[in-house]
Amino acid sequence: MNKDYDRRFTNNTIFNIPESRLGVIIRNIKLDDINEILQLQEASFADMAAYGMVWPASFLKKHMHIFPEGQLCAEINGKIVASASSLVVTLKPQYSGHTWHEITGGGLFTTHDPKGDTLYGADISTHPKFQRKGIGTMLYNVRKNLAIKMNLRRIVIGGRLFNYYKYANKMSAIEYSRKVIEGEIEDPVLLFQLKNGFKFIKILPNYLYDRRSMNYSNFLEWLNPYHQ
Known about the structure:
By secondary structure, the protein is α+β, with helices and mostly antiparallel strands. It has helices spanning 34-44, 46-49, 57-66, 100-104, 135-149, 173-181, 188-195, and strands at 12-16, 23-28, 72-76, 79-89, 118-126, 154-160, 199-204, 217-223. The protein has an 8-stranded mixed beta sheet, with helices on both faces. A hairpin with a 6-residue loop joins strand 1 (12-16) and strand 2.
């Protein structure tokens, strides 16, 4: 990490949605936002919310206390329509297998390492009414800017295999992801991540309880081109 990084840095970036007059403000999450974030999570991950796989309010407060710079939201006309949570870690070896609970300290971000070299994307969500408008890409771009400002080597995320449950009895998880990359199968999550410059590394088994992904995840990486 860059020793000159100023922890007072906060994101407050304004974007415009193409073919729309709506301005999107990307900023750091505040305590007053928590109730809106919880509602957003339930709407964005309706399938996972049904079995309790969303942030509790106490966890969001913990994230803001540990690493406020990495907790982002997207706001339109004063309403939060998307959010993203991240922490800094070091993986040894750099492509080591892990679960979501292991890497995030059970979701509490107690594994956050200020001296780490990797910004780890623990979560990103966009309200269904505002999906496919480029807001997720805006959040990823601000994450990339944060990694650059902090002189981190890369961003790593564990991505859902969103439609794998439809193919699980026909092929392995690695075959599924390869076919998505080759354009033979459509998976909106992996395609979105590839479009945003992430490279598929490998499959992570037993990553997180996720019925659609059959508990698998894609290990994806974006390298900071300005890292020194």
